[in-house]
Structures are given as C-alpha cells and as structure tokens.
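PROTEIN DESIGN WORKSHEET
SECTION A - STRUCTURE
LENGTH: 207
TOKENS:
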C-alpha cells in the first residue's frame, strides 16, 4: 500500500465533509498541492465561498502547498477587499458609476500580493488569513486567529492579530526539516517513513 489516492475527492469512506482540496477547486487562481485536505462542518463546497473578495479582474492567487490541514470556516481575505488608506476617504466611489466612474483615474487600490501557504501547515477552525501573507512550511495557526503578517516555518501563532507563541522545534531541527522537504518525497518513501514522520526524532528518517 502507498497511501490513499491523491486524485479522489473524498478519501474517507462514507464521509463527505473531508476532501482532498485540489479535487474540488474550480477557480484557476486557487492552487492546491497533493494530499492537502479541507474539513467542513457542512459542505466542502464552502471552501471557495470562504475565499473572500477574490475577483478575477484583480488576478491575485491563493497558493496552498502539499499535506496541509485546513479546518472548517477558515477564511482567506483577498486583495479585492482593499480600499484606499492614504486618501481623504476610503469610500469606493468609482464602482458605483453614474458620474463617479472616474474617481480612480490614475490611482489604484492597494495590492498586498498573493496568499502563500507552505507545506504541512495546519490552519485551525475559523482562522482568517489576510492578503499578502506567507505562511511557512510546518506552521500551525491556532483557532480563531487573524493572520496579518508572515508566519515563520514551524512556528505556532495565535490571537488577533496573530503573534508567535513558540517554535515547534529547535532551530537545528527546523533547518534539517526545511532541507529534507519530506512532502516532496515519492509516495513510497513517505509511506516507508510514516512511523518516523509521526515521531519527533528526525534522525530516524530513512531513504
């Protein structure tokens, strides 16, 4: 056996509220790696509904790596939510037309960039990730957190705004893990090492 089929929608028998996310995504600006799963209390189709203000004309992307775990009600706030902040008003006159359509001539709304989620990232229930944020490999985002800035690899963050609580491992172990990139191994090697990957002794990992 070499693990579940990464190309099926529902990897758990008789359970349709946990999916391998890449197999349910329809928006080409949402890119998801193999084996990343999304668990929803109601319907896995809620995932794209929770990618907010994601307008085609903006062109920003939500990029999620491999082997991530995303809980129900996690929200991603994309760049379409942005308003002017250095003008006298933040009000979006131009979208209403009728004589206001030129309000943004020679101006542009703030662009904070794509949201990039690394590999092996666990995002807890009802967390919110803001536009432009990068979350490093192996990070954990606590329940109800609002992430407004980048998260270091293998760190645990929580709160609103989210702050680092602690690192998961020593800097030495983190460096080794980032060098190993186990999520890029072939599935046979991952399967061979599942007992070691679910332990905390990095030196046990085998070829």
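SECTION B - SEQUENCE
RESIDUE ASSIGNMENT:
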């Amino acid at each position: 056996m070499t693990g579940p089929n990464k190309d099926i929608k529902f990897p758990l028998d008789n359970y349709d509220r946990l999916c391998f996310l890449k197999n349910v995504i329809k928006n080409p600006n949402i890119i998801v790696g193999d084996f990343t799963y999304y668990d929803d209390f109601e319907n896995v189709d809620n995932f794209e509904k929770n990618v907010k203000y994601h307008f085609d004309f903006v062109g920003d992307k939500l990029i999620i790596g491999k082997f991530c775990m995303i809980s129900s009600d996690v929200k991603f706030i994309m760049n379409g939510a942005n308003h002017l902040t250095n003008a006298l008003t933040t009000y979006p006159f131009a979208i209403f037309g009728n004589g206001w359509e030129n309000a943004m001539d020679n101006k542009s709304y703030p662009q904070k960039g794509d949201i990039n989620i690394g590999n092996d990232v666990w995002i807890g229930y009802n967390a919110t990730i803001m536009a432009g944020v990068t979350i490093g490999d192996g990070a954990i985002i606590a329940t109800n957190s609002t992430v407004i800035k980048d998260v270091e690899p293998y760190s645990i963050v929580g709160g609103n705004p989210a702050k680092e609580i602690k690192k998961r491992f020593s800097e030495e172990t983190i460096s080794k893990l980032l060098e190993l990139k186990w999520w890029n191994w072939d599935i046979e090697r991952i399967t061979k090492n599942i007992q070691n990957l679910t332990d905390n002794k990095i030196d046990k990992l085998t070829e």
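SECTION C - NOTES
Residues 84 and 90 are 5 Å apart (CA to CA).
The radius of gyration is 19 Å.
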